Structures are given as structure tokens and as C-alpha cells.
User: Fold this.
Amino acid sequence: GAVVSQHPSRVICKSGTSVKIECRSLDFQATTMFWYRQFPKKSLMLMATSNEGSKATYEQGVEKDKFLINHASLTLSTLTVTSAHPEDSSFYICSARQLEDTEAFFGQGTRLTVV
Amino acid sequence: AQKITQTQPGMFVQEKEAVTLDCTYDTSDPSYGLFWYKQPSSGEMIFLIYQGSYDQQNATEGRYSLNFQKARKSANLVISASQLGDSAMYFCAMRGEGKLIFGQGTELSVKP
Assistant:
């Protein structure tokens, strides 16, 4: 299958700082990327859907100013957690797909810990 | 709005036995896709099987098969001949209305 690379895999940051997570499609052009948040033993909660060149569509309850998503190219989307707090600690995972009716491929995930 | 539901938080199965993981869904989109993913403790999402809403036959991939009952809006995953390495979280997902959303997950434990 296609490869989606997500970095970093783990990050620890201080409360009040910002953290950027990158999601890259290595061997295909991703017109759509999804960002999810997952708590231990829980489901993947869709945070936002981003289409290349346009603003991300956020799910209800997700703060746009808190979780900044940029999808500037067909191979890269970034999620920036601004002014991070301990409650933002979680597993964040991205997925990317080329077309509407094609399979979405997942990054390895990023475990964020805010101290 | 679309919704996907997995009602089994945890399941146990004896090694070499078959197990069925349940998934029901709801959507107003006539064109949708249903997926099953496996998530081991490492966190990676491993694609297992896919069923399109217009597919006439149930999807199969090796030991995995998807029991698609469109009228009942269910898409259960059947794992045959369970192996110890099958122990993991399993998620049902639905593509529709421009999104990809997930069920609550089922934690499968395979007993030796």
C-alpha cells in the first residue's frame, strides 16, 4: 500500500508552547487528509478534514484556533497544537487519500505529552 | 449525519477458532465505503478489508471476510482460524459525506 509518514512519533512539550505535527504522503498525491485524536483504548475521533489548497473543515467541538491545520501541498499537511495544555496530551494520527473513493492510508501517529 | 457503531468493547476467542466482530452504520449518502482496520498496541492502523456500498459480493481478504448486509446496515468482520497475533483493537470505519469516521472499537483477545 501507499506510504504516509507522520513526524514526530513522540513529543513532550511544556505547557503553553506550540507543537507542529507533519503528515506526508510519500508516493501519491493526497487531495484529502484527515486528522484524528485518540485516547487510550478509545475510538479515533475525527478532528478535521483538509483538502489541498483550501481551509480545513473542523468537526463540531474542535477549536480551530487551538488546532491549526495547513494543507499547503498535495503531499504535506500539518497540525499545530497552539498553547498546549496537559489536557491536549493524546495520540494524534493522520490519514491521507488520493481520491474520494480510494482507500485512506494512515501515518504512524504522534504521541503528544504536555507537561 | 452518519454514524457507525461497534457494540462489543471486548471479545475473547480461542486460538484457531473463528470470531465475528459486529459493526452497524447509518448514512444518508447512497455511495459509501466500509473498512475494517486493526490497531495493535504500537498504534499503527493496519487496513484489513474494504466493502463498497454497490459491491454485490462480500469482500474477502485471506482469513478476513466482511459480512455485508445492506438492508440491515451491518458490516461484520469475520476472522477465521484466529492466531495469537490477531490480538489487537479492531475498528470499523465508514467513508461517506466526504469524511472517514470510526466506530468505538473492539478489543480482541486470542487465547492459546
Notes: Chain B touches chain A at residues 31, 33, 35, 37, 43-45, 47, 50, 52, 89, 91, 95, 98-105, 107 (CB under 8 Å). The longest strand of chain B covers residues 88-96. The mean pLDDT of chain B is 95. The CA atoms of residues 4 and 85 of chain B lie 26 Å apart.
